[in-house]
Amino acid sequence: MRRTIAASLAGGLAGLLLAACHADVTLPAEPVVPGAVLPANFPAPVYAPDANPPSAAAFALGRSLFYDERLSRDGSVSCGSCHQQAVAFADDGQRLSQGVRKQLGTRNTPALQNLRWKSEFFWDGGPKNIETLPLAPITNPVEMDETLANVLRKLNADTDYPRRFAQVFGSGPIDSYQLLRALAQFTAALTSANSRYDQAVRGEGGVVLTAAEQRGRTLVAQKCASCHATDLFTDETYRNNGLNASFEADSGRAHITSRVTDVGRFKVPSLRNVELTKPYMHDGRFATLEQVLAHYDHGVVASPTLDAALRPTSGPLGIPLTTAEQTDIIAFLRTLTDQDFIRDQRLAEQP
């Protein structure tokens, strides 16, 4: 009898489970961490997700740190102060970055997007890893002017951070490893891959580029892709694009390598969200995309390390572009604006 009852109960439970599988039942889902899913049209990342597995708690912790002004000496500047979401985590309209005590830096703030695909950072490629990247701005006397030891002291003295760090890393005082891993959870999540261009190339939602946009896409492939390559729209190299005849004020990549051949070379930025990230170039000298294209058409200046792509075998320096071609290129560049990225509330500062 007991066996019969047990069998009956087991069969009934199995039937209920089977029915639930076929019923229109929505089970609670784990929250999707931004950037955890890699875009289908992107190459393999440098910083793979399994290097620092995304989790909701670690991402939220990294987001809090990114927007926390206590990472600076006087509590006036956070990472988010210079990297604003509405402009693809660039610095809205500012030619040069501004740090503590309203000091101005010497370079334009680069956009923070698709960092998971980078092996070197900044205009000169100084930082080599996304996890150690924050050390440069935190300790720079013009930017945040703080020490790692002081940052850790402030975090450990906080009423909430020790609990949140323990949730992710286990009990014990907050250390530099935990701080940098948590920040990387947020910065690695800054993936921009859902522009109109992306939707068109992936065949999503019936999105089709206009005739002008398609002409611009062809022109970029023909005239710009030697530097702005792949669907990341950068080859991550360093180039001298003819801004100056000499570079005493800022030697670019040579500041890191000390090689004469690197003087005047700066990291090729991505064209993604370029409509939003003005002003342009490492020193923010150009206010508009029209000015940028005019530079390549007739403003390139000769110097010993000028990139070969701007030194044709015949004719003037630069890349010849008609007015109509420039208009079409700008039309295409605007298709690279990712509205989802700049509006995603998960990436915004939380109250």
Write the layout of secondary structure elements.
Layout: H1 2-22, H2 56-66, H3 79-82, H4 135-139, H5 148-157, H6 161-169, H7 176-187, H8 196-201, H9 211-223, E1 238-239, H10 254-257, E2 266-267, H11 289-299, H12 323-333, H13 339-343
Antiparallel strand pairs: 1-2
Helix pairs in contact: 2-7, 9-12
Short description:
The chain is 35% helix and 1% strand.
Molecular structure report:
The protein has 351 residues and is an all-alpha fold. Helix content is 35%, strand content 1%. Strands 1-2 form a two-stranded antiparallel ribbon. Mean pLDDT is 92; it is low at 1-29.
Number of helices: 13
Architecture of the largest domain in CATH?
A: Orthogonal Bundle
Q: What is the CATH superfamily of the largest domain?
A: Cytochrome c-like domain
Q: Domains counted in the coordinates: how many?
A: 2
By CATH, the topology of the largest domain is Cytochrome Bc1 Complex, Chain D, domain 2
CATH class membership of the largest domain: Mainly Alpha
| Alpha carbon gap, first and last residue | 61 Å
Q: What is the overall shape?
A: globular
